[in-house]
Amino acid sequence: MDRAAILLQTSIFRDLSIPDVEELLPDLRERTYDRGQVVWVEGAQAEELVVVAEGQLKAYRVSADGREVILAVYPAVAVTGEVGLFHPRGTRWLGLDAMTPTTCLLLRRAPLLSFLSRHPAAMQRMLEEISITAVAAASSLSRIAFDPIGRRVAGALVALADAYGEATPDGISITLRLSQGELASHVAASRENVNRALVALTAAGAISHRGGHFHIHDRAALEQAAGT
After folding, report:
1. Which of 144, 171, 201 represents a domain boundary (last residue)?
2. Tens place of pLDDT for every residue, the chain, 228 residues?
3. Residue 45 DSSP label
4. What pairing do the DSSP bridges indicate for beta strands 171-174 and 102-108?
5. Cβ atoms 213, 178 nearer than 8 A
6. Nearest alpha carbon to residue 62 among 49, 71, 53, 54
7. Which residues make Cβ contacts (< 8 Å) with residue 44, sequence separation at least 6?
8. SS (HEC) of 58-88
9. Where does the HTH crp-type domain lie (predicted)?
10. Domain of 30: which CATH number?
11. Dihedral in degrees, nearest 10, Cα atoms 61, 162, 173, 228
12. 35: closest CA among 50, 53, 57, 51?
């Protein structure tokens, strides 16, 4: 595994050079997780930044009655853990599990802070990531409060297509592996209600779901359903 190349693909370190990121290599720790394995639980001590080298993670919360809400999904070369790492309490505010077999690169807080102090470009990207996380959390709360389920489902698919879409001959394929149940957790709705929304979008020719991936065939129709 070329750890330097992986770091250079991330949102935080992408502006740097190979010699820059090579400074971090002695402090990186590699760990592999099986599908469904816990990376950390909500409330755990936040000690490391996580770079997804291969696979896919989900950040989530579980209600008192056992319902799961997925707040974010992290595919390869995504970075997570920065919010808890820099929060005054130093704890994780969400649980984090592997959705597929996943390999991560872990970097502890002290060497990360030392590195950021020497590389202002990476520091700026880190602050941007924390800001993006804050805006996403506020937007998610607003959608849950104000939007009907059909609009939330369509809006989530549009956002996922923007973030993780790849052009195909028949539209856009969302590269994340996401089941209908996981999409329901993502929009904080029951699987039954989300399935009804997906059936309507599929019947309209806007989307399909094959091989664990959502495919967008009519983006205009999907955006109309999302109210955008």
Report:
1. 144
2. 899 999 999 999 999 999 999 999 999 999 999 999 999 999 999 999 999 999 999 999 887 777 888 888 999 999 999 999 999 999 998 999 999 999 999 999 999 999 999 999 999 999 999 998 888 777 776 676 667 888 889 988 998 888 889 999 989 999 988 888 888 888 878 889 899 999 999 999 999 999 889 999 999 999 999 887
3. B
4. unpaired
5. yes
6. 71
7. 91, 92
8. EEEEECCCCCEEEEEEEECCCEECHHHHHCC
9. 147-220
10. 2.60.120.10
11. 90
12. 57
Tokens in use for 64? 């008192």
Q: Answer with the one of 98, 118, 144 that is the final residue of a domain.
A: 144
Q: At 98, which helix (H) or strand (E)? A: strand 95-98
Please compute, for residue 125, the number of CA atoms within 13 A of its CA located in the half-sphere on the CB side: 19
Name the nearest CA neighbour of 91 among 76, 109, 113.
109
Are the CB atoms for 98 and 56 separated by under 8 Å? Answer: yes
CA 55 – CA 216 distance, rounded (Å):
22
Same domain, yes or no: 129 and 90:
yes
Domains identified in the chain, total number: 2
Q: Are residues 156 and 222 in the same domain?
A: yes
Tell me how far the alpha carbon of residue 155 is from its chain's centroid: 16
